[in-house]
Amino acid sequence: EAVEEIADDLTRLEGIGKKINELLAAENITSFKSLSKLSVKKLKEILESAGSKFSLHDPSSWPKQAKLAASGKWEELEELQNELVAGK
């Protein structure tokens, strides 16, 4: 019997908005844990398959952010997000 994961609010991660959250949900990626296990390559494929307006997004930090969120390391996540915002 499959244990259904509780959906997390993936929009708490830098770079993920409502539409991208929907794209990920369509791929059964609804938790920080499941997102943290994805490769950047797979994330780019998901974005590219959704069209050009999504393929511009850079998902390279998402698995790392998701890993921190899944571990409840909100302060570390916030520090990382502050760097990401400044790094754009």
Task: Draw up the topology in text.
Elements: H1 18-26, H2 32-36, H3 40-49, H4 52-55, H5 62-70, H6 74-86
Would you kindly provide a written description of the structure presented here, covering whatever features stand out?
It is a single chain. The protein is an all-alpha fold and 88 residues long. Helix content is 57%, strand content 0%. The chain contains 6 helices and no strands. The protein has helices at 18-26, 32-36, 40-49, 52-55, 62-70, 74-86. The model has no long low-confidence stretch (mean pLDDT 92).
Provide tags for this entry.
88 residues; 6 helices; single chain
Q: Strand tally, please?
A: 0
Number of H/I helices: 6
Low-confidence stretches: none
Overall 3D geometry? globular
**Nearest-angstrom radius of gyration?**
13 Å
**Structural class designation:** mainly alpha
Helix content estimate? 55-70%
Mean pLDDT: 92
Secondary-structure element pattern, one letter each: HHHHHH
Percent of residues in β-strands: under 5%
Largest sheet: none
Task: State the distance separating the first and last CA atoms.
Answer: 44 Å
Short structural description:
The protein is mostly helical. It has helices spanning 18-26, 32-36, 40-49, 52-55, 62-70, 74-86.
